Amino acid sequence: QSVLTQPPSASGAPGQRVTISCSGSSSNIGSNYVFWYQRLPGTAPKLLISYNDERPSGVPDRFSGSKSGTSASLAISGLRSEDEADYYCAARDDSLSGPVVFGGGTKLTVL
Amino acid sequence: QVQLVQSGAEVKKPGASVKVSCKASGYTFSGYYLHWVRQAPGQGPEWMGWINPESGGTKYARNFQDRVTMTRDTSISTVYMELRRLRSDDTAVYYCARDAVYQLPDFNFDSWGQGTLVIVSS
Question: How far is B61 from chain A (nearest CA, A)?
Answer without folding.
Answer: 8
